[in-house]
Amino acid sequence: MSSEATKVLLAETWSEDIDPTDWWMSEKLDGVRAYWSGSNFYSRQGNLFHVPDFFKVALPKIPLDGEIWCGRGLFQKCISIVKKQANKVVPDDYKLLTYLIFDAPSHGGKYEDRMKWLQANIPQDDDKCYASVVGVKKCQGLADLKQCLAEVNAAGGEGIMLRKPGSLYENKRSS
Known about the structure:
Layout (H helix, E strand, L loop, with lengths): L9 E2 L12 E4 L4 E5 L4 E2 L5 E2 L3 H4 L7 E6 L5 H8 L15 E6 L7 H11 L9 E3 L3 E2 L3 H13 L5 E4 L9 E2 L1
Parallel strand pairs: 1-11, 7-8
Antiparallel strand pairs: 2-9, 2-10, 3-4, 3-6, 4-5, 6-7
């Protein structure tokens, strides 16, 4: 797969002069960014991740954007599992991972529509599904954002991602 096909939405640093009220907040994950093509996982650079079939069997056959994650502070463990060559993959290691999905690039429409589609189409509470939609919360203002950030940081998280309401999926950095 070419890197053109795996161009993903990238974040920019938020500026305090932008009012975050009604923006969507989610935890910034410390995992491996992974683009699901509908049949395989790829890095942002277009490199194939050699993932066992059981890890991807419940995913829809459309592109998804997300992160393979194994928990806060476990980036090195996660990357050591995901970046193995095909002949070195240990399938049971993938039972420690989750694909946290934060967008459906090919769905089109506004962010809220894409999130509704994901919630309706990604199996929740399914033992055979190693994927989940990342949790989002509507920001009530700067104080809410700062409180959420403090909670994430206290739990060992990396930060907060903000999505503008009504935003489209763009293959570039977004504000």
